[in-house]
Specification:
- The protein is 49% helix and 10% strand.
- By secondary structure, the protein is an alpha/beta fold.
- The chain has four domains: 54 residues, no CATH class; 161 residues, Up-down Bundle (Substrate Binding Domain Of Dnak, Chain:A, Domain 2), CATH 1.20.1270.30; 145 residues, Rossmann fold; 165 residues, Rossmann fold (3-Layer(aba) Sandwich).
- The strands form four sheets. A six-stranded parallel beta sheet has the order 6-5-4-7-8-9. A six-stranded parallel beta sheet has the order 13-12-11-14-15-16, with helices on both faces.
- Helix 5 crosses helix 24.
- It binds iron/sulfur cluster and Broken Fe4S4 cluster.
- Iron/sulfur cluster binds next to loops.
Length: 644
């Protein structure tokens, strides 16, 4: 297959061609070997929950052995997938909470609480006394409350109070205000075992509840605590794509999701002693870069370069330039073990819950994290001499990362009057039509990065501000879309005026998978600021994930739907189409209940049109689509937006 049909990323195309020449396998080849994939699985109509099965629903056999119909089976599979996604994000959040508490207690000496302003805000929000108390004491209490959110036996998620009040009322009315994360995940598994919940609407309502426990619970806490621990991101420059690898330096890739290890590796790579060691083996320095969401975490906070997204993970090793790849949890392909064997690359697992056969495991503990990170860097240095042939594609783009809720607020209004007001005003006056989150993975079934970047271009052209996270933000970065200079050329006139006045790109890098919660907080703030309705469901906003891979993407999609937003997925990766009733509910009827809904569209241009139609309908309903004389920004407008 032509590499161009596999990826829109030029560096990836080069590496795919080189791997084919060398007879090496990657995810695209393994997909070919799997074809045709199981139609039952794709439609969500296969059940293997009990030992009377597995059962597959066909025209001939319309019921499982237990009598379960297609609606029950599809809804149960969907609920289980959402719950699995929630568990991944939230277990990430729990790990962060544990390191946070250990840091505050002084038991994790290598970590420091970096954003104490945010710590105070969080303490106030969670009801922690701050007067006359040390930062560490405050942080211990904040950490304990956060940790309890995962497993408390009573009460609902505290972060859910950040949602607009009418939204909270809707959740209460339908009985889906999320309780402890563990409880919602456990109940999801219970409800979906054989012979329990058999009403597809009831099952799908719980899919909302468990997803909300993630979006307004586990994942939101992960982001908040990481910000206090590692620093709230503010805009800074970085570079994206495989061209960031350095031929004459020791290259280390950090891959996965949790910044607990990667923060320490980044710190160790600056260590003078280790730099000296690197020079001794003939390298000019130590170059740390990331793949997947770990990369996003590091770009957001430190401007550390990104080597690629999900489908790049095997390709970067095939450059022959990687001395060591340290992985933690989530989105780490087992295929890495085979490609690493073809090169000198040392693959190391670091999370006790995510080991790989035949791969060295070096456990990261919060008490000795920097020491372990230094050991890993030293391993990489020692491995430099074992390099064979190296080929690094040149492609890379400069990008701006670091758009947290706080930094967007600051960019818009300045330090002393930080506010979303200018954004609301520009949505109301129509310069910006709406806001769309373009998020999620890269899937070998779809040319890598193509839908994310095409959709993003189509949206900004039509004056829609795009916020991106996960592998989609890396896709946009690779094509220069998160670089203000390049992207502003592609933006519509209204969006461009606003972005130029504020000094931002029309596509904002907002972080990793868990950082989708930054978008939820931003939606709440748009409502709170006023002029755009009383609830998230009234906002001219949407989300899109056209290349999704992970169950986490379904969890994210479901918490956006349950928060009142439209979410668009590609048709071929939405595993509910085998049930007309479940599809109708998720694509349409759920809107009457919760204000948001799913939609499927695989063509990114058509998806943009669908989203625009939705945005304009929301604008009409808000009464902000009145014809107005177009007015270009004058000095007064610019002064009003100027950053302090
Ligand atoms: Fe088959 Fe029912 Fe068992 Fe599922 S739960 S495998 S449909 S018998
Ligand atoms: S890493 S979940 S492939 S975005 Fe977060 Fe990328 Fe999707 Fe993994």
């Amino acid at each position: 297959m032509d590499p161009k049909e596999r990826s829109a990323d030029k560096a990836a195309q080069e590496m795919i061609a080189r791997m084919a020449e060398a007879g090496q396998q990657n995810a695209w080849d393994r997909l070919q070997a799997q074809l045709p994939q199981c139609g039952f699985g794709k439609q969500g109509v296969c059940c293997r929950i009990c030992a009377m099965g597995p059962c597959r629903i066909t025209k001939k056999a319309t019921l499982g052995v237990c009598g379960a119909d297609v609606d029950t089976i599809v809804a149960r599979n969907f609920l289980r997938a959402v719950a699995a996604g929630v568990s991944a994000h939230s277990d990430h959040g729990r790990t962060v909470a544990e390191v946070f508490i250990a840091t505050a207690r002084g038991e994790a000496g290598d970590y420091k609480l970096k954003d104490t302003v945010k710590l105070h805000k969080l303490a106030k929000e969670l009801g922690v006394e701050t007067k006359d108390r040390s930062l560490n004491d405050i942080a211990v209490d904040v950490g304990k409350i956060a940790l309890a959110e995962f497993g408390k036996s009573e009460g609902t998620q505290l972060m859910a109070r950040r949602a607009p009040e009418p939204r909270q009322e809707i959740w209460d009315r339908f009985g889906i205000t999320p309780r402890a994360v563990d409880r919602e995940v456990t109940e999801s598994l219970h409800r979906s075992t054989m012979g329990v919940d058999q009403d597809y609407r009831n099952i799908l309502m719980h899919a909302s509840r468990v997803a909300l426990a993630d979006g307004w619970g586990g994942a939101m806490l992960a982001t908040e605590l990481q910000d206090v621990l590692f620093g709230t991101p503010y805009p800074g420059r970085g570079e994206v794509n495989m061209g960031v690898l350095k031929k004459d330096q020791v290259n280390i890739i950090v891959h996965g999701h949790e910044p607990i290890l990667s923060e320490m590796i980044a710190a160790a790579s600056q260590d003078n002693e280790l730099l000296h060691e690197a020079k001794k083996v003939g390298a000019k320095g130590i170059n740390v870069s990331g793949t997947c969401c770990t990369a996003n975490e590091l770009l957001m906070r430190h401007g550390i370069p990104i080597a690629g997204n999900f489908l790049n993970q095997e390709l970067v090793i095939a450059t022959g330039a990687i001395e060591l790849m340290a992985v933690d949890v989530q989105c780490v392909m087992q295929g890495l073990t085979n490609i690493a064997k073809c090169y000198h690359t040392k693959l190391v697992t670091t999370a006790d819950k995510a080991k790989m056969p035949g791969v060295e495991h070096i456990s990261i503990e919060e008490t000795t994290a920097l020491k372990t990170a230094r050991e890993l860097v030293k391993m990489a240095i020692d491995n430099y001499k074992n390099r064979g042939q190296v080929y690094i594609p040149k492609d890379k783009k400069s990008a701006v990362g670091g758009f947290s809720f706080e930094s967007i607020n600051y960019m818009l209004g300045g330090r002393y009057r930080a506010s979303f007001r200018p954004l609301n005003d520009n949505i109301i006056n129509g310069r910006i039509r709406g806001i769309v989150g373009v998020v999620g993975c890269t899937n070998p079934k779809i040319p890598q990065d193509w839908t994310h970047t095409t959709l993003t271009r189509e949206l900004i052209k039509r004056d829609v501000l795009v916020l991106t996270t996960g592998c989609a933000t890396i896709a946009c970065g690779k094509q220069g879309l998160t670089n203000p200079k390049e992207a502003l050329e592609l933006a519509g006139p209204g969006l461009r005026e606003v972005c130029e006045a504020v000094g931002i790109a029309p596509v904002l890098t907002c972080g990793s998978c868990v950082d989708n919660t930054r978008l939820l907080v931003s939606c709440s703030e748009l409502v709170r600021e006023g002029g755009l309705g009383q609830d998230i469901s009234e906002l001219p906003v949407a989300g899109a994930c056209l290349e999704s891979v992970s169950e986490k993407a379904l969890a994210i999609g479901q918490y956006f739907v349950a928060s009142g937003a439209l979410v668009v997925f590609a048709k071929e990766i939405m595993p509910v189409l085998g049930s007309e009733n479940v599809s109708n509910y998720l694509f349409d009827e759920v809107e009457k209940d919760l204000g948001g809904h799913w939609a499927v569209e695989s063509d990114p241009v058509k998806a943009a049109e669908m989203i625009l139609e939705h945005i304009e309908a929301k604008r009409d309903a808000l009464g902000i689509n009145r014809e107005k004389e177009r007015k270009l920004y004058d000095m007064e407008d610019r002064r009003a937006l100027a950053v302090e």
